[in-house]
Automatic annotation (TrEMBL):
Entry keywords, A to Z: ATP-binding, Nucleotide-binding, Transport
Origin superkingdom: Bacteria
A cellular-component GO term for this protein: plasma membrane
Lineage per the UniProt record: Bacteria, Pseudomonadati, Pseudomonadota, Alphaproteobacteria, Rhodobacterales
Stored InterPro entries: AAA+_ATPase, ABC_AA/LPS_Transport, ABC_transporter-like_ATP-bd, BCA_ABC_TP_C, P-loop_NTPase
Gene3D superfamilies membership: P-loop containing nucleotide triphosphate hydrolases
GO molecular function, one term: ATP binding
Stated name of the protein: ABC transporter ATP-binding protein
Amino acid sequence: MGILEIKNVNKRFGGLQALGDVNLSVAENTVHAIIGPNGAGKSTLLNVLVGKLIPDTGSVMFDGQSVLGRKPYEINQMGISRVFQTPEIFGDLTVLENMMIPIFAKRDGAFRMRAIGAAASEREVIEQAELMLESLNLADARHDHSAAMSRGNKRRLEIGMCLAQEPRLLLLDEPTAGMARADTNNTIDLLKQIKDERDITIAIIEHDMHVVFSLAERITVLAQGSPLVEDTPDKIKGHPKVREAYLGESA
Ligand SMILES: Nc1ncnc2c1ncn2[C@@H]1O[C@H](COP(=O)(O)OP(=O)(O)OP(=O)(O)O)[C@@H](O)[C@H]1O
């Protein structure tokens, strides 16, 4: 039984079947990649997992509890945290202030933008945020405006902001999209470090096969809304059905 169990999930948009009978089990403390050509249904599936979309049929269980019908913040409180394709940080705030937001939210059970102004007195929160920035190698940038950071560092900060919520399942939506190779490799190293340092399950949607094969222990290939194959990276690499789905090669 995986920490995440997706059973018979279907989702239609009008006449289009975006997800068709998706069955997927993600084992605890593994990195599971979901890959597939454009339009395969990857983002739709992720949106179902975080409560942004409700499937027409099927079930999604996280650690034995249904996520369906819950609001995104409730799913977040269950221990699922998502990193978006475009970094979701507050450009007007410093790196440290950004990092304090999820720590406040975790402590107070609410997102309180105004709390930032009173943050000087919140020694404990600042200390936690600084520790997190150190582990992310962002300590030197803590007083910089986050808008000025490189794309790689923005992503690093955003991943850290998710981790501050202490999720058990981290969902990554193309975490290296638009990055230069050096930033991509730094992000791979960061995710490996995170995986080594904590009990966490990672589900990643990614187009860059270098990232997928560097990180994933299991890979599910989605094509036209349904899982085509699920296997280890070695088996997936030369799989004729996968080549066919991506390249239109005949099997
Ligand atoms: N809100 C929506 N309304 C109508 N159709 C949608 C909606 N969201 C997605 N679709 C369609 O559902 C299908 C699956 O889209 P989805 O974005 O999940 O694919 P994807 O695998 O994430 O693709 P990509 O790799 O390009 O991001 C596509 O045909 C898309 O056009």
